[in-house]
Inverse folding.
């Protein structure tokens, strides 16, 4: 939030800065000593020292022997892939390990934590609210994912196999909702439906479809469906585009062969297109599960973070947030996170197996 | 050539990454100083800071006191004191970081536990202020050099009571207090009840039953009494005998059970607009011709009624409902490991104990303040135009005098939310009373597993 964060940022940058400068200046020193001296003077002292030292190392290493050159190529390779691993270790692996450790502690986030073994997990498997949140999450995901895939396949097939006038425009329009941040979408739908004088009620009353306003957000079924719909609306354009790329990559010769054999359009679609885009479908399914199981922003902004009515759209991610930052049970929230992690892993594996088996069979 | 290209490409890649990382660092800095309008002059000071430090003018009022205070606040209000504070202590630079209330604890928690990047002063809103007061991160202000106890007589007792922990340590103060009222429409009162006088209207609202009677009368005249029944909860929390939690046990006060029925009556009889507080229609009811009152404390007048009242200018009045109440407010305290406690205290002193500063603040922003002296001085001044000349300080002073202590617990924010959800499902007929209460108890148990719930 203040200077300290800046400090942390700088510390993070440092390894890269050093890599960059030492690696960049080494050959220069080797080849054009005179020019380097000028550069060195211009560089800050520390970096100059670092680069000078690494220059020495490089000079030693840059022998004529091919073997050593090969080593160097390898070294560069590791250097170039290192940023990902460094970032992954800091921002990926460390939080996971730390969450796992935290899930075995009782901690309010401020006072020193107490180790409490499997207490949190014991509580987790008897926590009805947790299972309800998992049920909600899966329901919201299913009612979004199935129509999303169906519509995406339909639209993609339409766009790929037919000449649709204004196709680019349609594609852009379908993709558009994906560009709006989820929080704004949540708030927008809140304004549309919340209360007796909401925009939708106003419209319905004006056109005489209803006589008394409908309180949409009092209905768990409506609220949950609305979230699924919003998710569908936001993501079907993206899915369509990905499926289209999958379809476009199919060799036209296969279609020609099918045509020669007299296959109908429908038959072609089910016997050729679908099986051949299976990798795309697997990818879409798994990324959708991972994203869908973590859904937070739309239901949170739609209901002010509560998941009401009657916790019908309280998702697991929201439950984690509430446990951690509203009720100060960080240890338990970590246990819930681990539960969610297992759930996602399991679901991904099952769907992967299911889709793969079809391919083999 | 190929080699060169590769070199440039990789240089660019790494460069981009660097920029991205540095970018991150920079943006957090900006966030840190984006405190509001008051930052402008302060920031300029920073540029010349080093010069001033080396040749500091001697004998200024702020002898030896210089430094930089980092303050985390959930609202803009503290920033409004900075320019006045800097006139007295020009060498103390105040950085205010405003963090939205919803994220405040989530941001505060990690810095408190690690001790890194912690602010010198931070605020706590009424929903969780007791949680912070009971945790060991605010300095106890009773000892040296604060000696707060010599000043507490001048502060409204409720404000001190909230800032005091269960062991009696005074840890947080406030510049404001938020006493409650029933904010009613004078013209509608005149039309229906034949009087617009606050005392007379107050008499008509002196108990929950009387409020429902008045609501029925208003309904006959086509007027909804309340904008939202949920507002009444602000007051009902003060109508309790006991707090939500006593000795780690959840207690549901009798009055809370009664309120559930009251809410159901209001919902079923159409005594309110059936909207959620802060929804657009709720706010719009300020200028309506069919909504009688809001049950809101001082901030409700300041943020809801006053800014919106144009047509209804002069048509509002403040009356006491069944009980005097206080709801909401923001407290602040000094971080126990702050390296600048002295400067932090000077700021706190200026904001929470300087009657002059509070008085000018109250005049400028129309906010009710925490020092008796300031409020009493303002009670003698002219009344509010929106309120038809009624002096809100006079009204609130009377209310504050009736409230000695608070019924707050560290669990209030979440328990209040759970209770509201339970009342909602009971009022709209989704659940019967027992089921709603069972849901409420279950919610509390889920969120606070250590509490005893019967």
């Amino acid at each position: 939030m203040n200077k300290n964060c800046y400090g942390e940022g700088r510390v993070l940058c440092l390894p890269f800065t050093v890599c960059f400068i030492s690696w960049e200046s080494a050959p220069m020193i080797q080849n054009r000593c005179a020019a380097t001296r000028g550069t060195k003077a211009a560089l800050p002292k520390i970096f100059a020292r670092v680069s000078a030292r690494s220059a020495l190392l490089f000079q030693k290493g840059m022998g004529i022997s091919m073997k050593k050159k090969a080593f160097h190529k390898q070294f560069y390779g590791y250097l170039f892939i290192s940023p990902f691993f460094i970032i992954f270790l800091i921002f990926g692996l460390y939080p996971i390990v730390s969450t796992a450790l935290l899930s075995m502690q009782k901690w309010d986030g401020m006072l020193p934590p107490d180790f409490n073994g499997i207490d949190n997990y014991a509580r987790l498997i008897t926590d009805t609210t947790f299972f309800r949140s998992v049920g909600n999450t899966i329901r919201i995901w299913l009612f979004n994912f199935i129509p999303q895939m169906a519509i995406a396949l339909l639209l993609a097939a339409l766009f790929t196999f037919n000449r649709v006038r204004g196709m680019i425009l349609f594609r852009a329009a379908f993709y558009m909702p994906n560009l709006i941040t989820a929080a704004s979408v949540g708030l927008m739908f809140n304004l549309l439906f919340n209360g007796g004088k909401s925009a939708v009620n106003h419209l319905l009353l004006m056109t005489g479809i209803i006589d008394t306003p409908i309180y949409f957000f009092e209905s768990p079924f409506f609220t949950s469906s609305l979230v699924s719909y919003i998710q569908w609306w936001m993501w079907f354009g993206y899915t369509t585009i990905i499926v289209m790329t999958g379809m476009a990559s199919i060799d036209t010769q296969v279609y020609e062969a099918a045509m020669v054999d007299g296959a109908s359009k429908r038959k072609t679609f089910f016997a050729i297109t679908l099986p051949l885009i299976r990798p795309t479908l697997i990818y879409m399914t798994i990324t959708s599960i991972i994203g869908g199981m973590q859904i937070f922003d739309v239901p949170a902004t739609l209901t002010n973070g509560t998941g009401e009515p009657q916790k019908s759209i309280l998702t697991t991610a929201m439950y984690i947030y509430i446990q951690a930052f509203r009720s100060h049970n960080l240890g338990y929230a970590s246990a819930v996170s681990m539960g969610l992690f297992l759930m996602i892993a399991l679901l991904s594996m099952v769907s992967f197996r299911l889709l793969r088996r079809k391919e083999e069979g | 050539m190929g080699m060169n290209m590769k070199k440039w490409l990789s240089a660019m890649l790494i460069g981009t990454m660097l920029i991205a990382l540095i970018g991150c660092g920079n943006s957090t800095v900006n966030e840190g100083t984006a405190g509001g309008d008051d930052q402008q002059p302060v920031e300029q000071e920073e540029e010349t800071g080093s010069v001033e430090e080396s040749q500091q003018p001697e004998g200024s009022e702020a002898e030896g006191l210089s430094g930089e205070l980092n303050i985390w606040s959930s609202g803009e209000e503290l920033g409004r004191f900075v320019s006045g504070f800097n006139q007295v202590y020009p060498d103390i630079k105040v950085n205010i970081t405003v963090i939205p209330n919803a994220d405040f604890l989530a941001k505060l928690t990690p810095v408190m536990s690690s001790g890194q990047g912690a602010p010198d002063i931070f605020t706590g809103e009424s929903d969780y202020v007791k949680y912070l007061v009971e945790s060991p991160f605010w300095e106890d202000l009773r000892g040296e050099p604060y000696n707060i106890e010599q000043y507490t007589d001048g502060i409204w007792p409720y404000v001190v009571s909230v800032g005091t922990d269960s062991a009696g340590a005074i840890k947080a103060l406030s510049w404001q207090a938020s006493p409650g009222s029933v904010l009613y429409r004078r013209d509608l009162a005149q039309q229906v009840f034949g009087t617009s006088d606050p005392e007379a209207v107050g008499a008509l609202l002196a108990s929950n039953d009387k409020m429902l009677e008045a609501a029925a009368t208003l309904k006959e005249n086509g007027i909804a009494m309340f904008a939202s029944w949920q507002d009444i909860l602000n007051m009902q929390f003060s109508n309790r005998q006991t707090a939500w939690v006593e000795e780690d046990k959840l207690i549901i006060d009798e009055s809370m059970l009664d309120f559930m029925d009251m809410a159901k009556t209001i919902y079923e009889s159409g005594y309110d607009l059936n909207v959620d507080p802060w929804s657009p229609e709720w706010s719009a009811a300020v200028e309506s011709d069919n909504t009688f009152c809001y049950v809101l404390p001082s901030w409700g007048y300041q943020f809801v009624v006053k800014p919106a009242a144009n047509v209804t200018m002069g048509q509002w009045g403040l009356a006491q409902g069944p009980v005097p109440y206080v709801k909401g407010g923001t407290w602040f305290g000094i971080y126990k490991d702050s390296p600048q406690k002295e400067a932090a205290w000077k700021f706190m002193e200026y904001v929470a104990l300087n009657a002059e500063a509070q008085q000018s603040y109250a005049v400028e922003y129309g906010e009710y303040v925490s020092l008796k002296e300031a409020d009493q001085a303002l009670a003698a001044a002219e009344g509010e135009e929106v309120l038809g000349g009624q002096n809100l300080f006079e009204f609130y002073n009377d209310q504050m005098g009736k409230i000695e202590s608070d019924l707050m617990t560290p669990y209030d924010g979440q328990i209040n939310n759970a209770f509201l959800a339970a009342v909602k499902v009971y009022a709209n007929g989704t659940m019967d009373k027992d089921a709603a209460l069972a849901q409420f108890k279950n919610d509390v148990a889920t969120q606070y597993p250590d509490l005893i719930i019967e």
Remarks:
- The two ends of chain A are 56 Å apart (CA to CA).
- Chain A has two domains: 3-110, 122-360.
- Confidence is low (pLDDT under 50) at residues 1-59 of chain A.
